[in-house]
Amino acid sequence: MKRCFFISIQILILISNLYAKNISFSSETDALFNDSSYSSLIKKATFDVINVRDIDLYFNLNYAVLENEIIAISKKQIVEDLSKVSNSKRQLKTSKAYRIYRQTIYDAVQKVLLKNDTLLQKLLEKNLDDQILDFQSEIHLSKDGKIRVIEKIKVANFNHGNNNLIQRGITRDFPIQYCNKLGFLYSVPFHVNSITRNGEPENFFLENLTNGVRIYCGQSDIILPEGIYEYIIDYTTARQLKFHNNRDEFYWNITGNGWLFKINKVKGNVFSPQTSTPLDMSVYTGKQGRKERNAKIYLADSTNVEVVSTQSLLENEGLTISVSYPKETFIEPNFLIQAIQLLKDNKYLFFIIFFVFIHFILLYLHWKAVGKDPKSGVIIPLFEPPNELSPASVGYINKQSFNDTLFSAALIDLAVKHKINIDVESKGIVFKSNVYSFRANNIDQDDYCKKNYGFEETDLNGITISKGTYNSKFASIYFLFKKHLDNQILKIDEKDSSITKYLSLNYDKIGIGFFALFGIFIATIIYLGTYKPPTNHIIFLVCLFLLAVVVQIIFTLIIKAYTNLGRKTADKIQGFKIYLSTTEQDRFERMNPPEMSLQLYEKYLPYAIALNVENEWSEKFNDIVEKAINNGEQPVMYRSYQSMSSSSFSSFTSSLSQGLSSSISSASTIPSSSSSSGSFGGGSSGGGGGGGGGGGW
């Protein structure tokens, strides 16, 4: 079994190596020449065509850039000439064939180049940018997840190009901080073992970046002359492997996508800690997030995955690989180690999360202590409102909040008591809407309106309102009304010793939440300003703070609670609501209610509106109202309409209440200005660990 496995590995390696061949002209020459000998021969032929002294430096650089183009345009001529030689020299011995084939290729390349002045000019070009000629990365993976990387970066330094960044040496950026799928930060260790330039130890120093480190190779007081330099950066890192349910993955950005130079060639070798055939291999090139595959990846031997670029990389383009191994090829850290590391990497974030949690707990404890309503008592049907409360007060206490319907109920209550008349007129050419006009009757001079609603009925005299139209005079009356109800019903804080209030806001108990919220805000600002986390982390923190604000708002709204008087009154209101809302005739009659009449209906209609049961209350009086209308008697609520038939009565009450509430909302709310606005294979280049980029200094 082991022998079969070994043979399979060797066959796979052989196939991979055949697939990896980049230069091919004919089967005969491919058997005699490999990529390296082909490349050397074509380079010599090109150099001999130039035949100019003292251009080695520029020629080598230009040729490195143009090699693939030279091979491509020469291939047709080479194949054609080789075909002629092969047909006439079939019986040549290997050594002699090699010399003839070599000369044929040499001559063919020169023949093509001598006809291509543009290409020759490019080979002589001296106005050159700083660039990376060759980027080689040797990556050694350990069983315990540690990674040693040896990068050989050959750069060309010239002083004549547009990109003249290299003065003292190169820089190499390496990210050490990432975000996981949940948005939490995790960091990776990074240690530079050594750096050499052209085989000699190179001076270097590190600078911290927002999410990584920058290596400066060179010295500030030494300027490099023009030339080609090879830097070897040897470093170690860890925590870069990904552990899936059925595989271990090494997802690695070999070059990084942040280089300010063009990279002509890239080669990478990934060595696994043991003989382990990869389950899957992928390569991605291009700018961040792109999925181009301008590179070849193959198994060089049983522990070595090799990747080679097939075209140069421009600025901010990179090469990324993903290699998946069988599960347990590497040792996965246990849950406890991962949890401790997560807490360590996100200690400031977790501090803010903990602060938000404490904020919630404090608010919850205060709500539990004072914000829960006293326990409800026994609810029995009542046939009149409790404590001679007005309809608006009854609705406020029942809902524990103020709304426009309460003002509708108050206005209808004043109309029922003949304090005001409400005239309704439908206006509009196509889309009609109701316009409400108010007239004070001044039948008597009691203070009912002032006592219950905080304004005089004469204040309404002559006011007209409609949906979508603001009325400043009406708005001032509306806010007098709201302020009066608030003062009548709400107990603001513990300093209010009144025993006649129905609802306690408990705002003094919620103040600690605002203090905690301010602390969260300050801690968040300090964290963002000091540690400069990534964008998705900032979004998470902003959402976390907004969550704390929402929690504060919710508890501010729900912490109000009934006082003892409020609880007893609310129970009575529930009993009265049962009487108003019961529509089943048998059940209604078993309550022994007062005798039904038009006057009783109108008397309690404002209460039904305030409690949102006006439809149920009106339904019980259909026959009585119809009879009154047929007898020529008109309910006080309808006297403003030109005509009123019994068929429209069933919907009249509901439409009156809703239409009046909508008009009240429009008339009492200042319009706001509007504004408008316009508007396996899952990897990509720049993904995974490693990466970064670099430049010169």
Question: Which features characterize this protein?
Answer:
5-stranded mixed beta sheet, disordered N terminus, 20 helices, 697 residues, 8-stranded mixed beta sheet, alpha+beta, single chain
- From the alpha carbons, calculate the radius of gyration and give it in angstroms: 43 Å
Residue share in helix: 40-55%
Give the number of helices.
20
User: How much beta, percentage-wise?
Assistant: 15-25%
Shape estimate:
elongated
List the helices and strands and how they pair.
Layout: H1 2-19, H2 27-32, H3 35-50, H4 56-88, H5 94-113, H6 117-124, E1 131-141, E2 147-157, E3 170-175, E4 177-179, E5 185-187, E6 190-197, E7 200-201, E8 204-208, E9 212-217, E10 227-237, E11 242-243, E12 247-253, E13 258-259, E14 266-271, E15 280-286, E16 295-301, E17 304-309, E18 318-326, H7 335-345, H8 347-371, H9 391-399, H10 404-416, E19 420-427, E20 433-440, H11 448-453, E21 464-466, H12 472-489, E22 490-491, E23 503-504, H13 507-531, H14 535-558, E24 561-562, H15 564-581, H16 585-590, H17 598-610, H18 614-619, H19 622-630, H20 649-668, E25 689-690, E26 693-696
Parallel strand pairs: 1-14, 12-25, 13-26, 22-23
Antiparallel strand pairs: 1-2, 2-10, 3-9, 3-26, 4-5, 6-7, 6-10, 8-9, 11-12, 12-18, 14-17, 15-18, 16-17, 19-20, 20-21, 23-24
Helix pairs in contact: 3-4, 3-5, 4-5, 4-6, 8-13, 8-14, 9-10, 9-17, 10-17, 10-20, 13-14
